[in-house]
Every structure is written in structure tokens, then in C-alpha cells.
Probable malate:quinone oxidoreductase (Kocuria coralli), 494 residues
Amino acid sequence: MTQATTTETTDVLLVGGGIMSATLGALLTELEPTWNIVLAERLDGIGKESSSVWNNAGTGHSALCELNYAPQNPDGTVGTAKAVKINEQFQTSRQLWATMVSEGKLGRASDFINPVPHISMVFNDAHVRYLKARHEAFKQHKLFERMEYSEDRDQLAQWAPLTMRGRGAGAVAATFAPEGTDVNFGALTRQLVDHMAANGAQIRTGTQVTGLTKQSDGSWVVSTRNRLNSEDTREIRAKFVFVGAGGGALPLLQKSGIREIKGFGGFPVSGMWLRNTRPEIAEQHNAKVYGQASVGAPPMSVPHLDTRYENGKKSLLFGPYGGFKPNFLKQGSLLDLPRSVRTDNLYPMTRAGLANLDLVKYLISELLKNKTQRVEALQEYYPTADGDEWELVHAGQRVQVMRKDKEKGGVLQFGTELITAGDGSIAGLLGASPGASTAVPIMLDLLKQCFPNRHDSWQGRLTELIPAYGRTLDSDPRLADEIMNHTAGVLGIQ
């Protein structure tokens, strides 16, 4: 006999146990401590999908080393607007983390963030000219004033010894940003969720959302089932729903039927890393070294040689190597992509696909690589690397946004897209990089859009949590020094 469905009510339902839901949940815990919050995660633990330490680069995206955030203009100059915006966003995230650490609401900062310099390194004359122009443009901005540029091989060897050992003749240059970090977003997610739970939030792992139905009073009835016990089904009536399910957000928002999701599709991109966990190798490299992307490669596939921390232990990652699987989550279904196709998004997806055949070609070439070819790519950044010391591990799935475009019919959009219903009763996040690093400003935007009548009353607490809330650091050098020095001190980074 089938067990009857349990019905309950809550103020807020967070779908997905990653960094986005955890950030929103932590903010609402601080802003509205009397609200009831339920978090539903389909896996058996928190932060195990895209937020997991091995499923993303953990760069703490601040545009210090990611060259794709600073495009070169036709006249040879370099645009800085996107890079400055991303850096500002990351500084906002750092402020919240620092406040919560200092108030004792998060655990040890070193469990989720560590100082790791960020380096951009290039290997031919044209790229050297670009990198020099980028540095010239960046040094005019307060947020990038500590960045150094060099073409001197001895200097580069001091910054990143493994990259220069055994390197042959030819142009090479790099920029060095000492304030870079490595962020374990899985560990941070778990700390944020622990804080929510300590303040009354209900955390339900192994819980799959199967349906969302809008009610006449504006609330949502969300159907769930226990993945370990199919007879355990529940209906949760929520005043507000946030879908922070990574790649799984698109099909869930489609199930909701809101008009704002019409025309959106998703293009899944998988990835792999080479990983070296040998202490004697990891101790010789303390940096994240980013280069130029291959032609047709998505921004998140820019090659980089990274220092990573997990539970205090250093390892090295190189990659990612792109690939294609039709599932929207690493632990998802191969039917995710075909099931997401609707009459409203078929044309935009088709047009976007036809306009990005170079990406398809790139992904196919990546899939066909063998271990030897992957090691050869590694040796462009670490010339003396021994392939036998590196293991191949799978990264998380990313689903790039595909959307309608009046001129082109459909476009493939890199970055993130916040989808909010007109009445503010439900919202979700699509897309990928720089994602996790900008979780706090993204969730602040969500609060403005979904809770306009409460936002004024939250200003005081928001300013306590984020001291520079509503202000920009790059345009105020004195404020920037004050805020950045404070957060660096609290978090134990440079």
C-alpha cells in the first residue's frame, strides 16, 4: 500500500544544496530569523555537485588571472569593465564571509579559503603584447594595483617554478597577483548550511523535487520524494521558492511554467582534470596559472595549473579538458538535454548551436584526446611533468545558457542568468562561471527583485554583514584599503 503524501508549509524552500542556495539561506537566516526555511538536496550530502572541491577550479574568481574577462579591442587596447565588475563582486562575497567568521557563524576560514597567488602566463609574441596591454590597462584600477608584469625568466621562475623548469626558447610573459585565493566552495557551502541548521532551518538530503505548482494565493506547492524510499513523498507549500540546483535548475523552472523561463535552453559541457596529489610536487607550486583559451573553447575551459586545498592538504590540478555529455548534472540523467527541449526554446537552441560550431568542434577534439595528448597539454605549462604522476578525474557538469535573441534568433551565453517570476514568488539561477565566487552579489540582486517591500528594512543588517554594501571599492581607494585589509585579516589571506 502506498504511503499517503505528507503536506507541510514553510516560508522559504531552497532547492539544491550548493553554494547558491546556501548563500541565500544564510542571508535570509540573518535578515529574517523567524522565517521557516527548508532546503531540499537530491544527493546524500551538501555541496557535492558543482560546489564540490574537485568539480570546479576554486579560483575565487576576481579576474586577476582569467584573461577572457579582459577582451582586446580592435585598436589593441584592453577592456577592463567586466574584470572590474567581477572583482567588485568577489570583494562583496569576501565581506560577507569575513563578517560571518568574525561573528562566529562560520568555522575556520582556512577550511574554505587560502592565499594562492594568481598568475596569467602566455607563450607567444602576440599573446605577450596582449598581456602587457592588459597590465597597462589594469594598473589604473585600485583593485588591480598590486599586479606585477614581467618577461624576465628568472622572475617568472620565482613566481611559478614548475612552469619555467625545462622550458625552451621563445616568448613568455606573466602577471602576478599576490592577493589571489583558492576557495573550497564545498566546504564553504557546508559551513553556511550548518549555520542555517543551527538557527532552525530543515536540511533534507536525498530529496528529489518532482513538481512545482502555483497556487491562487501566490504560494507554491512543491512535490518531493525520498530517493532512498519512493513511498516517502511530501508536498511542501512555500511562500517563496529558490531553484539553486545548478544544471538541474532549467528543467525545474520549466516544470514551474513561469513565462520568464520561456525561450531558455541549456548546453551542457563536461570536463576532466589531471590531478597530482604527491606532496613533493605540490609543495613546489603555489599559484593558479591561467593561460589563453583554445579557439572555440568556452571560458570555463581556459587551461590552468592550480594549487588546490582540501582539508589542509595541497594538490595540483591541470585542465580542464572539455567534453560533452547530455546530462545537466554530474550525477544526472543522459536524457536531461532532450527532455529540456520545448517548442518555445527549440528555435533559439538551434540558432545558438549553428552559431557555435567551433565550440562543438573543440569539444569533439577534447573528447578524442588520449592520456598522452592530455599530458602534452599539461607540459605546455609544466614542461617536465611526468604523466605517470597524474590521474584523470571528472569535473562537474556546467550548463551554458541558451536564450532568445531578436537579431540572431538565439545565442549561447556565458556567465549566469537570474530568472525571477514577475510576482517574485519563485526564482532560479542558470549558467556557470564565475558563478560561485559571485554568489553573494547574485543573491543580493535576488533579494531586491523578490522582496522589494522588505528590502528597506534589511538595509541596516545588510550593511553590518557587508560593510561596503551599495558602494564600489575601485572608485574609492580609501574605502578599498579599509575593506580589503579587514577582510584579508579576518580570512587569513593577503
Observations:
- The CA atoms of residues 423 and 450 lie 7 Å apart.
- The chain has 15 helices and 20 strands.
